[in-house]
Amino acid sequence: MEQAVRDAIIDRNPAKVTGWLSEYKKFEDELDDPRTLSLPVKFAASTAARIGEVSGVRVADIDTTSWTWTVHRQTTPSPGGLVDKGTKGKRARKVPIIAEVRELVPDRIAATDRDPAARLLTGPRGGRISTAILRNATHWDEVVTKLG
């Protein structure tokens, strides 16, 4: 296949897998410095949302006039990687955004160039936030066990 590329028969080698190392590095960085996930943790705690719902929030989902978040998607792991799908309850719902989080939202919206389809909250390198990474960073299972 590489010879076909060199001979200009094809543009690129379809068998060459690229990008996997950078994807792996994104998750590795999040594990090394859990503080990079402080904003998603604050957002999740103040809205009582599931981790996957927080990972799935887009700029268009936030109404800065009424300060509500319309939740209608979540990011979940699948055999092909992380995917967005409907919420666990399969219905959209509105969640109020409290004052303590409101001050953080405009900066995140500005960081996306106000792209309505952009993710509001991302990992340290701009990727999706996986449930497992956020769970580990917050010691979620240990906290739940202690609380009973």
TrEMBL record:
GO terms for biological process: DNA integration; DNA recombination. Keywords: DNA recombination. Residues 12-148 form the Tyr recombinase domain. One of its GO terms (molecular function) is DNA binding. CDD domains: DNA_BRE_C. It comes from the Bacteria. InterPro entries: DNA_brk_join_enz, Integrase-like_cat_sf, Integrase_catalytic. This is Integrase. It comes from Nonomuraea soli.
